[in-house]
Amino acid sequence: MTIDDISLKHHDGQEAESLLEELCDAYADAYGVEPREEKTAAFRRRAEKQFARPGFALVTARSEGRLVGFVFGYTLPAGDTHWWGGVQPEPTTEFLEETGSRTWVLSEIEVRQAWQGKGTGRALHDAVLGARGEERATLATGPDAAAQPVYESWGWRRVGRIPGDEGDYYSAYDLFVLELPVSR
Fold this sequence. Notes:
Elements: E1 7-11, H1 13-18, H2 20-31, H3 38-50, E2 57-63, E3 66-75, H4 93-96, E4 103-111, H5 120-130, E5 136-141, H6 148-153, E6 157-163, E7 172-179
């Protein structure tokens, strides 16, 4: 299994809906949980809400027809600063401004365990961000997420921490930003 064994494909929100069961299965495998576990159920709820958001995009990675990884996200709407709500340290007003075409949220990037560490995540990352027209991308991770050093090695920079909402998986999230277009 190498990066040369995968094929990448871009999908819109409608196509993503038809792939939801496969996405949930790959998500569960990436985290080593049963598909019906609480973490997977929360992923399903988040995903279903995002498929119809403006600027939604999904890229899948397949090997021999099997979904081995995926990445998706959406564009922050004009005037929406909820994403940045409560971020500390507090950024400038200019940083917080959303125009509806400024910031793309990388919401999920998941790779099945057998494909982790083989370049699949980076290939998905570059494929989805390479097709974006926004000025920047953002993502949120748990404060101690093992992926943080990986994101930093890909050019992301931590801009602060926000409190989690009631019912969130974490009580706080670290926010990262990457200027687009992606250069490698």
